[in-house]
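Hey Z.,

So I finally got round to the manganese (II) ion thing we talked about over coffee. Here's the setup:
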Amino acid sequence: MSDYVKLKNQFNIIAGPCAVESKEQIEKIASAVYKSGATVLRGGAFKLRSDVDSFMGLGKEGIDLLVSAGKSVNLPVLTEVTKISDLEFVKDVDILQIGTRNMQNYPLISETAKTGKIILLKRGFGCTLKEYLQSVEYIKKNGNDKIILCERGIRTFETSLRNTFDVSAIPLLKEKSDFLVYADPSHATGNSRYVKPIALSAVAAGCDGVEIEVHNNPSDALSDKEQALDLREFDTLVKQINSIRKTVEKYYE
Ligand code: PEP
Ligand code: MN
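And the result:
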């Protein structure tokens, strides 16, 4: 069974830190999220940060640490590629993420597609669903249909939270494409207090998976610390997600 078919056959919970910070950090998180029920371990190694003075990730070393932490708990791993030259380092990564800022970076999307790996393409924070699906065509045109879409919040007139989570994107994308549709409540809200209600609303809306930022010590996280769930909060959230899924599953058959 291909890895993509495996992903298709189950509800996936991608979890892990915004950025891999050290061997100890990623191993601790990997072991905890695995025990809580995560199905994919995430961790950024090449970070695109708005603040030029902030932590930009460990690069190749970060990917190596992520891959080895994933192996130690037998979880597939996901990391973001931010430029074509990153592709040199991702041989052992299972899922390549293209982030919101690169949703219309067609050369990056095309080269990433050519690796043949599963691609999680986030929605651009300023892009319509039509533009999103046009970007998906670049993956398909390059011979890859192992695609995961992910609603991660868009920019609107509302500024209370980092972004506005577009829950309607979930049924619309499922209707307009054949691909898996996930939700990222962490980047959508930018605040750990709201990750739970947005995650649960996405599950109720019929998403196929979620991606959630988790840290063993959120207050010390080197990036996106405000939105990271701690290990206990994540453990509770997985149980709540599974309970909502049980209730709504039959409505989406
Ligand atoms: C991420 O997942 O770490 C990330 C940067 O996401 P986004 O591109 O949605 O901001
Ligand atoms: Mn992040």
